[in-house]
Amino acid sequence: MSVGTALPAIGEVLPAVGYAPAGDLVSHAQTFAHPDVAHVPGVADAVHQAAGHMTDAAAQGLHELLAPAAVALGALSGALLAGRAALVTTQVLAAAAVRAAEEQACLERRQEASATAARQWEVAAFAATRANARRAALLARVRRAARTAAPGTPPPPVPGLPGPLAPVGMPLARLRERLAVLDERMRHAEAAHAEWVLRESRNAFTAPQDDAWQRELRARRASVLHEHRSRPDAARDADPAATRRADEGLPQPPAAEELRHEDAVRIGAELLARLDVAATAEDAEPAAAAVRHALAAAATRPLKARTHLREARRFVAATNRAVRARRAAEERAAAQLDFLETTAPQGTDPLPPAPAETALLRRVLDEGRRLEPHEQRQVDDRVSERLAELERRYVERMLRLAISGTDRFDGRTAGSSHPHGRLVRFDWTPPGWGAEHWLRIALDGEHARVATMRREAPGARDAAALALDDERCHEAGGHLEQLRGIAQRLGVELDFAFEESGTVPGTRGEEGVLVLDEDIAGARPEPSGKTREEHRRRSEDRPGHRTVRTDGR
User: Fold this and answer.
1) Partners of 72 in the beta sheet?
2) d(Cα 376, Cα 361) in Å, to the nearest integer?
3) Exposed, middle or buried, 530 (CB in 10 Å: 0-12/13-18/19+)?
4) Sign of the dihedral defined by the CA atoms of residues 198, 202, 205, 210, in that order
């Protein structure tokens, strides 16, 4: 038989794709989530072309006309991007935040960004994931601090933050504006919490000559926190070398013979002031103890004081690395938790729940501890499985669009919640093939398989029929190459390995198979009785294809 196999891969995610609705025919334009898309000049023409013919130009037109300003993020596209964001490092998310800010600056200067709409939406969605994760991690730190504060200690200030960003349905420019607002409010809230830690945890920072020491420490910490409030930190988080440079830039004590008490006060205060804004009093204790010892020895034993200051410097660098790692783990947990708790819209196939993994992730935020390696692998596997299911749904929608310019859904729910558990099959009759032959494409959670089909009939096939079989098998490769080009324009890589080895007998639209027909004259039985008029009205309004109902298998 004549068969082919491909491993579909999604490149750039078209930003405005929604989940597949249960029910009837959906036009090409309606595949996209934002109602304004169909009214963008030129898009309707591209949709009309794609609905009638599988043309590379139509798909290219759609891809280019879906400008960032014209569309809002669709639910399926948003879920896909959130899933991708949940699996990358915090450095990648920070780099996306930097890029999103740069593109917003281009917009404000009325300059056109060089990236495609899909790429701009990806970095904006990644930046939103980072912002929401930072927000959730900060709120978790504040809750932990309130629980563990000493009796009689005023609770930490409640961060005055807006709600989490919800990119789905939001135009790109508005999302970028809200990103900027949330980022600024976050930096102010983080600084306010760091001030509370210093103010209410004096035992960790006390030293001889307490009043003078506290004034020096508060002044230097205030300067560091002012800088944190004033300057976005995404660029720093995106560049590992930046944190290394910050650690290397910590003040060094002078030679022992040059070290005076006021030098020890200044250097000690600067070292503690440079602790990460997310550091707790417990985090600060080793460095603070070393500074206390240095101040006690500075007047009479400068060599010992210098040794303690060097030790404090090492403690600060190590503490900052540990706090940054903990903060990254909390933010990653928050991003993965949000992704695993996201539900599909009502009326669409549900996404599989992950109660064990969400419990692990909540524990990270509640307790401030990292997952064990095997726990992190378990969570990553569940995130990857959910992402694979979303990718399967996206590929299915894009292939339907690439073939016929329309989306048809049969209203059934998946027989299995596992991403590899549902097999989706549809029949496609390329132009000019008539009713005797068609291509059948099957999608699971990993592969796309295609076979050249022929109508099953009793008796032996004559020479003419066999010659037509061979001709269709030979033509199938060209049609699949055309399909590959259109799918690529829609963001899906689909490289079939195809072998000409004969046709497969079967029935077009058999049970469980969706039919997407471009050239099916005579392929469908003529409706009769009271359904004939209804069929005529539908055929005037819709491209010719149908769904065969299934029992969900």
Assistant:
1) 171
2) 9
3) exposed
4) positive
User: What is the residue type of 1?
Assistant: M
Residues in the chain: 553
pLDDT of the chain, 553 residues: tens digit per residue: 467 888 888 888 888 888 875 443 343 334 444 333 333 333 334 333 443 344 444 444 444 444 555 568 889 999 999 999 999 888 888 888 888 877 776 655 555 554 577 888 899 999 999 999 999 999 999 999 999 888 888 899 999 999 999 999 998 889 989 999 999 999 999 999 999 998 887 666 666 656 778 888 999 999 999 999 998 888 778 887 888 888 889 999 999 989 999 999 999 999 999 999 999 999 999 999 999 999 999 989 999 999 999 999 999 999 999 999 999 999 999 999 999 999 988 888 888 899 999 999 999 999 998 999 999 999 999 999 999 889 888 888 888 787 765 444 444 333 333 334 467 888 888 888 988 999 998 887 678 889 999 999 888 889 999 999 999 998 988 888 888 888 888 888 888 887 877 899 999 888 888 887 644 433 443 444 443 444 344 434 433 333 333 333 3
Tally the C-alpha atoms within 13 A of residue 168's C-alpha that lie toward its C-beta: 18
Q: Can you read off the two tokens belonging to residue 162?
A: 């807006």
Kindly report the CA angle at 449 between 31 and 496, in degrees rounded to 5? 90
